[in-house]
Structures are given as structure tokens and as C-alpha cells.
Design a protein that fits this description.
9-stranded mixed sheet, 12 helices, 454 residues, Lyase, Ornithine Decarboxylase, Chain A, domain 1, alpha/beta, 2 domains, TIM Barrel
Length: 454
């Protein structure tokens, strides 16, 4: 799909975001904050959580969902997880304290990440959190912590190095796993080994099903040795679809250096897969229906017949359509055949730019003047910094109106990782605040500031 000679990438329809735009709230917030801001739509998070639970129920799979907090620091999503009985995936003492402070029960936390520091392990053991052990030395540290504290036993999963990704820096090798299982048997008074975990890069379903089935068999063997071993965490990796298939494939086929400021080059493989045939809860359903290699039954039946509880740690998939980012146009320069905009923020608020990529979905122009003439007006979007490379959008976006100072730019569906993964108060610019929009089904949406203050 294209507008004239300019490739476009429209996002899928989102009635809640449309309602916020048409309400006029965004211009008032831009004036109040005097800079860029994010708005959050927690009802979308709740709907995504509900859909995944319904998928597990439909497949007759016992499962539990942990929200991967690293995907967005906002407190409101942790609050929603707590209110609906979900867990939270944390990887630091600060994240753990934040989750507890916003209502998540200790036993509903899973602690991931490498080389966990002693303070984090003490908190995790004390509050009964599930700890994904990444190394033999870490297992020894957990045992020591449990023996020294008032609360025992510690709850652990053993994180496995995926055979299909042997160069990953995470997880236990086969030899290390064998030693870890022996230590778990020896230390049964200090810890409860509840199963295994893994994380795979990418979004392919078959490798996840294959490794999950293999570790389900390992659960059965571990039980023979007297271990609990009835849980399996497959991490995250459920894709989000931002756009439709035709738009995505046309975009990849037509985009070229001439479509970017300074003829910036992005290979097709540099982009996140902004379209996925199945995403979110539908991707989970497809995974459960996948037959592991060499198996005569689906992954769902494999788990159910083995009595294994499936643990998931989605981040982006729970945040699909749960928020957007808004900038104000500060200046406009005319270039040869296009414009170069400067907005009141930085590309640090769109994290893809800092991974040698581009956040590809089209930003939405909200003109300050309702009578702005229509047409096709290509423009790239630069940041309010002194860095030549600091562009929010290198691509020349085919805007339907000529951008002017004072117009708003809305980047859609940014709640998953984009908003604050890399944000920094560069140039002493304040971090964009997060505004929670609790209701969009009224002429004037109800809003408040998020309660995350760290």
C-alpha cells in the first residue's frame, strides 16, 4: 500500500486511541506538560490478559501469566495484573519492590535475569517468589540464602540453554543441568525445585513447542528423583501485529534509501515483524495446537497429560494497543521535495532507533488548525537535540496535511518497549510523563498521572 511514491504503514484500527484523539484531550495535555507525553490505555492490557486466559482454558491447559515488567515501567499495568490475579516478571530488586508496592503477591512474582545480586535473592526468597536460576553458582547462592533466612524453602526453576540457540548467554548447558538437578535433590530442605524455564529469541512457534515438550519429559524424570517439577516457563515471544499483511509486504517490497532522510538504509531484516499472521492470544492458541517434533499429540495435550502447568511471561503482547506517544512539532524546514520536522522530544522515547532500526508504523498528524489543506506532504521527523543521528523517523512519511509548528504527532501502539526502554533526560529535557486514560467511552475521557515515580 502506498500514497503516491511514498510507502506507508498504517496501524490496525484502534477505537480507544481514536476516541482519545477526537476528544481533544491531547492538545490540552500537550499544553499542560509543555513537552512530549505518553498516554496509557489499561483496558487494553486487561483485555489482552483475559484473551490469553481464555485461550488456556479453551485448550484445557493449566497455566499462569506473568507480565514482563521490563516492557513498560508504568505502575498501572502492574496494578491491573495484581487486580486480575496475574503475576509479574521482574529482574531487579527495584522492580520486585515496585511490584509488591502495587499489590502483587510475592508468590505471584517470577525473578528472571542473569547473575542476580544478593539483595534481589534475599527479597525473592523472603517473599516466596519463583526464581529462574541461570547458573550453578546462582543455585548455590539461592540455597545459601534460603538456609540463612527465616523463610524456607526457596522456589526455583532451572533455566535451560536452548539447543537451537547454543550461543545464548542465558541458561544451563546439559552438563550443568544434570549437576543442578543433583544439587536440588541434595538440598530439598532448602529449596523446592518446581520445574524448568527457557526463553527463545524470535517468534517461531515450532522451536518453542519442541523445547517445551522436551522439558516436559524432563519434568517427569525429575519427579522420579523426588522433585516437584510440575511447572514450565516458556518466557515471552508472543508477537504483536501492528499492521495488515498487504501493507507490511508492500512496505518491505517498496521501501528504499530514497524514501529516507539522507538516504538512510534499512534492510528488511532490520525491522521488527510489524505484521504477524497470528499474534497475542491467537499465537498462544497456535502454539498449544503445535505438534512437537516427533510427537503424536499437540503441545496442549503433552502438558495436560504430564500434569505440567504452563507459565508465560509476555510483555509486548499484553501491551498491544495499550498506549501511544505524543510530540508537538516545534519547527519545520523545507528540503528538496520533502520537509524535515523537529519535535519537542528525542528518539530515546522510540527505542527502535537505538537498535539500528526504525519504528516503522506511520505517526498520525493532528493539525493545530482544523482547516489545514489536504494532500500528500512527505516529511521526516527529527528530535530537539544536537545529534545529527537523532531522528524519530528517518522515513519521509506521507502526511495527509502539511505539517506546521504547533501540530501534534501521535506515534501509535508504543506501550510495548518503545516508551521508556531507553529514555534519558538528555540535554536536561524531562522524561515524558505517562498519563493513564481510564475511560474512553465518554465525551471527555477520564485521566490521571501514572503512579510510577522512580
Amino acid at each position: 500500500m502506498s500514497t503516491g511514491d511514498w510507502p506507508v504503514l498504517p496501524v490496525l484500527p484502534d477505537a480507544a486511541t481514536d476516541a482519545v484523539v477526537t476528544s481533544g484531550l491531547l492538545r490540552e495535555l500537550a499544553y499542560a506538560f509543555g513537552g512530549p507525553f505518553h498516554f496509557l490505555l489499561p483496558d487494553a492490557f486487561t483485555a489482552n490478559l483475559r484473551a490469553m486466559r481464555q485461550t488456556l482454558d479453551a485448550a484445557d491447559v493449566d497455566g499462569f501469566l506473568y507480565y514482563a515488567k521490563k516492557a513498560n515501567k508504568a505502575a498501572v499495568f502492574v496494578e491491573r495484573a495484581a487486580a486480575h490475579g496475574a503475576g509479574v516478571d521482574v529482574a531487579s530488586a527495584a522492580e520486585l519492590r515496585e511490584a509488591l508496592g502495587h499489590g502483587v503477591r510475592g508468590e505471584h512474582l517470577v525473578v528472571t535475569g542473569p547473575a542476580k545480586d544478593p539483595a534481589l535473592l534475599r527479597l525473592a526468597v523472603t517473599h516466596g517468589a519463583l526464581i529462574a536460576v541461570d547458573a550453578l553458582g546462582e543455585l548455590d547462592a539461592v540455597i545459601t540464602t534460603a538456609l540463612a533466612g527465616p523463610v524456607r524453602p526457596a522456589r526455583v526453576l532451572l533455566r535451560v540453554l536452548p539447543p537451537v540457540q547454543p550461543h545464548s548467554r542465558f541458561g544451563l548447558t546439559e552438563d550443568e543441568l544434570a549437576l543442578a538437578l543433583e544439587r536440588c535433590v541434595e538440598a530439598r530442605q532448602a529449596l523446592r525445585m518446581e520445574g524448568f524455564s527457557f526463553h527463545l529469541s524470535g517468534y517461531a512457534l515450532q522451536p518453542r513447542a519442541d523445547l517445551a515438550a522436551r522439558l516436559t519429559e524432563l519434568c517427569l524424570k525429575a519427579r522420579v528423583a523426588g522433585l516437584q517439577a510440575d511447572r514450565l516457563s516458556i518466557g515471552g515471544g508472543l508477537p504483536v501485529s501492528y499492521t495488515d499483511a498487504d501493507s507490511w509486504h508492500a512496505f518491505l517490497a517498496t521501501q528504499c534509501p530514497a524514501h529516507y532522510h539522507a538516504e538512510k538504509t534499512f534492510a528488511s531484516g532490520d525491522f521488527y515483524p510489524y505484521h504477524s499472521p497470528v499474534s497475542g492470544a491467537r499465537a498462544l492458541a497456535a502454539l498449544l495446537e503445535t505438534r512437537p517434533d516427533g510427537a503424536d499429540r499437540t503441545l496442549a495435550r503433552t502438558l495436560t497429560e504430564a500434569g505440567v502447568t504452563l507459565l508465560l511471561e509476555p510483555g509486548r503482547a499484553l501491551l498491544d494497543r495499550a498506549g501511544a506517544t505524543v510530540f508537538t512539532v516545534q519547527g519545520v524546514k523545507d528540503r528538496d521535495g520533502y520537509q524535515l520536522l523537529t519535535v519537542d522530544g528525542t528518539s530515546l522515547s522510540l527505542s527502535e532507533q537505538w537498535f539500528n532500526s526504525e519504528y516503522a508504523p506511520d505517526p498520525r498528524l493532528i493539525p493545530r488548525r482544523p482547516d489545514a489543506p489536504a494532500g500528500v506532504f512527505p516529511a521526516s521527523v527529527g528530535a530537539a537535540t544536537c545529534l545529527e543521528s537523532d531522528l524519530l523517523t528517518w522515513r519521509k512519511i506521507a502526511f495527509p496535511h502539511r505539517p506546521r509548528a504547533g501540530d501534534l504527532l501521535l506515534y501509535p501502539n508504543t506501550a510495548g518497549y518503545q516508551m521508556d526502554s531507553n529514555e534519558s533526560p538528555f540535554h536536561d529535557l524531562p522524561l515524558p510523563p505517562k498519563v493513564v486514560v481510564d475511560r474512553t467511552d465518554r465525551p471527555r475521557p477520564r485521566w490521571r498521572l501514572d503512579r510510577h515515580f522512580i
